[in-house]
Amino acid sequence: MARNRRRHAMSTPLPFPWNTVHRLQLVTDSITVNAQANGRDEALTTIVEELADGEVPPDEETMERRYRTLAANRAKKYRYHGMVDGQLAHQLHPEPFVQSHFETVALREIVGLVSSHISPDEKRLLQELSDGDSYGQLASRYGIKIGTLKSRVSRLRSNVRNSSVARIVHEALDVSTSHPTGEQTRIHP
Fold first, then answer.
1. 181 within domain boundaries
2. Taking Cα atoms as reference points, which of 52, 115, 56 lies closest to residue 83?
3. pLDDT of residue 16
4. Average pLDDT, the chain
5. In which domain, by residue range, is 22 found?
6. What DSSP designation does 181 have?
């Protein structure tokens, strides 16, 4: 009998906006993890949070358009972050030392760990410096004095160097260079 109630409850159409949320949830559900899937997931979360805050769009079309716009925007963000993470990994260790898929995954985790401890703006600033932009160019671009920029970068580098993340990265790099045969060593966080 409970099974029949569930079937009946699912066959009853949901009112707006919940019918649209349900449809978007079906579109969002993906077995693939990539920038597009992450973008759709974040877009749906934003839509639900807006509904919880009482921001209900006037109709289904407007809600779906907002979802598509958010999903595209968020997917672009995830693609950009992936690109920056790859560039940051290359800057951390420019010569090709990755010998296996395991090491590639480990390196991405390390870059993600470092990236999670700095803001996107700080990450972009370090990336611009590593790409060869001068302090003068960056100070002009951001509308601040060169001395202020140098102090900000110095504090940022110091904070990263003195964080627990730096210790983990140093241990991981030591392990990867001291065990070329693939022997595994536990790294203590």
1. no
2. 115
3. 92
4. 78
5. 1-78
6. T
Q: Which positions ≥6 away from 78 have C-beta within 8 Å?
A: 34, 35, 38, 39
Amino acid at 168: I
Peptide bond between residue 94 and the one before it cis (omega within 30 degrees of 0)? no
CA–CA separation, 66 vs 81, rounded Å? Answer: 22
Q: Report the alpha-carbon distance of residue 100 to residue 84 in Å, rounded.
A: 21
pLDDT (0 to 100) of residue 157: 81
Instruction: Examine residue 49 and state whether it is found in any structural domain, yes or no.
Output: yes
Asked if residue 13 belongs to a domain, the reply is yes
pLDDT confidence of residue 51: 92
CB 43 within 8 A of CB 71: yes
Which stretches in the chain have pLDDT values below 50?
1-2, 4-8, 98, 181-189
- pLDDT on residue 93: 64
| Per-position DSSP letters for 100-122, written without gaps between them | SHHHHHHHHHHHHHHHHTS-HHH
In-domain check, residue 73: yes
- Phi and psi at 74, nearest 5°, equal -70, -35
Q: What is the number of domains present in the chain? A: 1
Non-local CB neighbours of 117 within 8 Å, separated by 6+ positions: 160, 163, 165
Closest CA to 118 of 152, 167, 144, 87: 152
pLDDT at position 56 is 92
